[in-house]
Amino acid sequence: MRTGLYPGTFDPITLGHVDIIERAMALVDRLVIGVAINRDKGPLFDLEERVAMVQAECRRIAAASGGEIVVHPFENLLIDCARDVGASIIIRGLRAVADFEYEFQMVGMNRALDASIETVFMMADARRQAIASKLVKEIARLGGDVSSFVTPPVAAALKGKYG
User: Fold this and answer.
1) Annotated catalytic residue 95
2) pTM of the predicted model, to two decimals?
3) Fewer Cβ in 10 A, N or C end of the chain?
4) CA-to-CA distance for 48 and 162, rounded, in angstroms?
């Protein structure tokens, strides 16, 4: 069984994340969505809320793909999380060249820590490349329409946070 790990903060999960998750299911038998605790980022949604949102979005994807999706919060090194969940592949989504520079450095460090775990980059769908959780939160905070960037339950959760 091939297990992949797709890590992120998912604050909140966007349609860009959903696109990567759906496509990653074609590469693995089991996909672990690693929800990073990352206290330094000061997330809008607490860990339990983010995990619940990711689980809700992944139920439909798992049913459609016939694969297994597990949501796993983590606070340790990414490479250690990959080992913990038995992942042989780390899946990373790319939106732009700027993402690649950071990810390139991360891959080098991860390979130095454990060369047996591969990293696979997936380009976001062209319709989803501009979507970033940070921007979605700002649009929602300022009263804008986020329905093109997140699913209706996530839009409702954002509205609940910002009134």
Assistant:
1) yes
2) 0.93
3) C
4) 18
